[in-house]
Amino acid sequence: MGLAGGRAKGAAADMPAGRPATLFRLGSHRPVSGKRRALPDRPLGAFPAWGGRWALGQTGPGLGLAICQVVRWGAGFGKAGPSGDNRGLGHGWISFPKEADQSAQVIFSIGGKAGEHAKQSLTKMERRKAMPTWTLTGIVLRYANYRDSDRILTILTRERGKLSAAARGCRKPNSRLFGCSELFTYGEYVLFEGKGKMTVDNCDVRERFYPLREDVGRFAAGAYMLSVTEAIAAPGQPNEGLFALLYYALSYAAYKEQNPTDLAICFLARCLALQGYAPRLTHCARCGQDLRHLNQLSFSPRAGGAVCMDCRDGDSLEISPLALEAVRRMLLLSNQDMDRVVLPEAVRCQLKAALHAYGEYVLERPFRAMEQL
């Protein structure tokens, strides 16, 4: 493995030709500068100290070690302080084979405050490598902007249920997490866990459901589905049925020529039934009378479903037998057949009011997105 050094000032111009090298900040795997300069291929003993400090560098997993000389000090590249100013991370030239290009890491320098800073950076890298890493398939339900460029994402995952994760720097235009931190995004998220908190490291975006953002009705239906899902999903508890239902509902809302309100109603009814909150439809929720032969009916959110006229209360809503039959058929459909739901306008209005009120009552949360449908 070649060894290389350089002067703190004016050494680059008279360096003899050699293998290519890249300038790296201590404790980081990213190049400080994109400039490439030729470095001599000589052993350590052939170089004078030049007032610099020697550092140990690693060229990548299994590629061995190399020695490089730290040639600049200070808080940042190009801002070299006095010889005694070692407050910032050191910088150094390191020579390595072409096949190891872009994988070199200067790990620590020997002596000085810069060396202590670099060792702390190494400790952080080691801690991160030791953190548990998860690869989860998820859909973004909600986000909250945090600091200048971060977001806290609420993600429904197939493997671990609902969880929160920080997407650091995702609001920067050139961030690799820019696309995966938006609502409705479906993808494979790589998360690491530290101090009980999850952080997004990477994401393979598979579907953005972009048409939901191009139409107010579609967006309102999608946002309503996300709100209901967030209210129902339990943190840390996998729910593959709920995940699949949400995925199909978002897909149909985005790409099918279907009334988005019908999909939102169908999703709500199936979602409540999936969690054990299916409303009573065939018998009175209070007295148990068979309702299938009655023409005048009401729906009571507090009672948990349809009621006869004798059992209605002040909060009961008018509903027709056709609307109750529509709900019964919705519950019998598979996820793949949700696009078959087409409701008459009168039935749509009745179910929108009745099921929405029932959902807010049992889940104890208001859903404002329904106002836009």
Description:
Helix content is 26%, strand content 27%. By secondary structure, it is of the alpha+beta class. It starts with 18 loop residues before the first strand and ends in a 10-residue tail after the last helix. The N terminus is likely disordered.
Short description, anyone?
The protein has 373 residues and is an alpha+beta fold. The chain has helices at residues 112-130, 216-232, 240-255, 260-274, 321-332, 345-363; strands spanning 19-25, 31-39, 53-58, 65-72, 91-95, 105-109, 133-146, 150-157, 161-167, 186-194, 197-207, 297-300, 305-307, 317-319. Strand 1 (19-25) and strand 2 form a beta hairpin.
Please tag this protein with its features.
373 residues; six-stranded antiparallel β-sheet; disordered N terminus
Radius of gyration: 31 Å
Largest β-sheet summary: 6 strands, antiparallel
By DSSP, the count of extended strands is 14
The number of distinct helices, counting runs of at least 4 residues, comes to 6
Mean pLDDT: 74
Return residue spans where pLDDT drops below 50 for at least 5 consecutive residues: 1-115
Which class of secondary structure composition applies to the elements? alpha+beta
Q: What portion of residues belong to β-strands?
A: 25-35%
> Ends: how far apart?
67 Å
Question: Strands of the biggest beta sheet: in what spatial order?
Answer: 2-1-5-4-3-6
Give the fraction of residues assigned to helices.
25-40%
Q: Element order, helices and strands?
A: EEEEEEHEEEEEHHHEEEHH
**Rough outline:** elongated
